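[Q] Does anyone have a clean structure-token version of this?
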Amino acid sequence: MRALLLALPLLLANTAAEDPKIPPTIKSMLDAAMESGSEGDVAVIVKYAKTADPASADLVVKTATDWRNDRLAKANRRIREADFFDLVKGRAELGGYMSTGNTENIGLTAAIELRREALEWRHKLRLQADYQESLGLTTRERYLAAYEPNWKFDDRAYMYGAAQYESDRFSGFHDRVSLSAGAGYSAIKSPDVKLDLELGPAFRHTRFIDSTIESNVAARGSMDFGWKLSPGISVTQNASAYLQDANSTVSSRSALLARLFGPFSAQFSYTLQYESMPPIGRQTTDTTSRAALVVDF
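[A] Here you go.
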């Protein structure tokens, strides 16, 4: 028994000496990836390190996991301690457009988007205006304001509220107010690709140019897709639908954004809006192509 006690320190020392270590080459690459702050680069190093040196695979995974957890904890702490406006990000657009459908003109467009992302709440606000004047006559005048708060009750699922105001007499209505609430889900959530889906009931109140007023219960669905093709190029696809017994609306916006320099980018977009039962003399579909200068702030 005494001999066993004397040999125990030697046995422990040999075991410690045999514990796997991350090879210097793999460790240097892993350290460089973590230093860059890229989740994707770290994931690639972990993937190939498992094949290159299976003996240290568990230690590589643990090191990467500890780095991610520490990074997330620091990010959450910064968000909790930030002032309200510290988390607000915005985007402003100014450009021109060409339209077909009820109007065929070239004009100006301006828009601003604000977004605040916190741990439990996300707020989105969009303001947009299109205006065209030809030979002293206004031929297009469209205004839109939309606000959407989201309450995130886990990493992917959330509840949303949506309020939208539109004015477009050239599409047949002076004012249209849409209110909705429902459930949302982030089906894809990665640094390069995102896809948010929403579905819920809605209420719409419309004042048409012929003095007709409609108030209807509707169903609302929306899709928000974004794909970062490269550090300087991204595409987005946004679509929403209000379906009801009366006039239903389906809108879609596709955009290509190319980084120029600093906060400035060039954006090319195509918008389609479909009204199932427009006033007499109005077409069901309007399309708008836009080219705009975008600044992020």
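[Q] Thanks! Anything notable?
[A] The first strand starts at residue 88 and ends at 100.
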